[in-house]
Amino acid sequence: MKLAARVGEVTPSLTLAIAAKAKAMKLDGIDVCSFSAGEPDFDTPAHIKAAAQKALDEGKTKYGPAAGEPKLRQAIARKLQNENHLDYNAENVIVTNGGKHSLFNLMLALIEPGDEVIIPAPYWLSYPEMVKLAGGKPVIVQTDAATEYKITPAQLRSAITANTKLFVFNSPCNPTGVVYTPTEIQALAEVIVEQDILVVSDEIYEKIIYDDAKHISIGSLGKEIFARTIVSSGFAKAYSMTGWRLGYLAGAVELIKAVSTIQGHSTSNVCTFAQYGAIAAFEDSQDCVEQMRLAFAERRQVMLERIRAIPGISCAPPNGAFYLFVNISKTGLSSLEFCDSLLETQQVAAVPGIAFGADDHIRLSYATDMASIEKGMDRLHKFVQSQLS
Ligand SMILES: *Cc1c(COP(=O)(O)O)cnc(C)c1O
């Protein structure tokens, strides 16, 4: 069978592949410590499940508007106004099948052949693939520990060409856990406005931040940057709703209408009764978010201390999300060799940094229980020691 050329352009998701291998080993009865998960390990809060259950019982099981239930679009707009200081109404918002779907549809609505999209590396692995599927050209800007893995305004400016359409900004960042400061975001916003490009701000980890880090939405920094901003987010990470497939995109009405048309011919509306769970997530108590954040904070501390006690590997200072991005360059192994060997010899699953455009790193997720973290770090310590001796 001759497949479309675009399929050959993209690489399958490596994070999903490793997580699947670790799961299969577990099913075989092998004692695997998995740090590969890109999802919270908590159950969805009970009041959110109850709201969806109630909607199901009430017969909210039919087709709805492709852009989402009006009540949910309103709840999202209200949240963006009150918490993020973004002047959006319901018509500026579309409900999608997850943050991933938001970004994919945005690329379809915006990117034409020849358009360049600037993506700082390390990046979330789906960004470049989505750009390619839409026919655009990902322009990767490498960052490193010297700037805490943050793109600088000078780097952004020099990556911009006449073909640049969009800059993909992700703070808190997956995979590095890095959170940009308000001053740093302001400086990037100035370049975006000056060069008149668009920015999509992926804010899916906005609620999962630590210490004195503060989340601000780049679009809240003035009228000019607001006009050039698109916000992508979802319910998966903050509310532990990964399997629900619920996200949203917010931006200019013209763009949201275009995305709505695309959804109207592809997925149609997101599962109707699931959307009622999302309404409850935003409108009821936010205590569940804080409880999960505190659990992550504790695990992060333990994992960070354990990593820092292992000679030969080092870690960026993470202030958000639930990942540590660990530099393994001193082991002399590629990230794929490191992760394969770690899984084979110590039954510890991690994600190779090459998936995120950084082959001298691995990503460890601490969205797992403390006992697994302790056990897994013992094993990692042993593994690194064996590589360096
Ligand atoms: C998890 C994630 C998303 C979206 O996840 P969905 O499950 O599709 O909502 C988007 N961006 C980043 C950086 C993520 O880690």
Automatic annotation (TrEMBL):
Q: What does the entry give for GO biological process?
A: amino acid metabolic process
Q: Give the CDD domains listed for this entry.
A: AAT_like (cd00609)
Q: Which SUPFAM superfamilies match?
A: PLP-dependent transferases (SSF53383)
Leading EC class: transferase
Entry EC number(s): 2.6.1.-
Needed cofactors, names only, are:
pyridoxal 5'-phosphate
Q: Which Pfam families match?
A: Aminotran_1_2
Q: MF terms per GO, please? A: pyridoxal phosphate binding; transaminase activity
- Superkingdom of source: Bacteria
Per its UniProt record, what InterPro entries does this chain match? Aminotransferase_I/II_large, AspAT/PAT-like, NHTrfase_class1_PyrdxlP-BS, PyrdxlP-dep_Trfase, PyrdxlP-dep_Trfase_major, PyrdxlP-dep_Trfase_small
Q: Which UniProt keywords apply?
A: Aminotransferase, Pyridoxal phosphate, Transferase
**What are the residue boundaries of the Aminotransferase class I/classII large domain, all occurrences included?**
31-380
Membership in a protein family: Belongs to the class-I pyridoxal-phosphate-dependent aminotransferase family.
Q: What is this protein called?
A: Aminotransferase
Q: Which organism is it from?
A: Chroogloeocystis siderophila 5.2 s.c.1
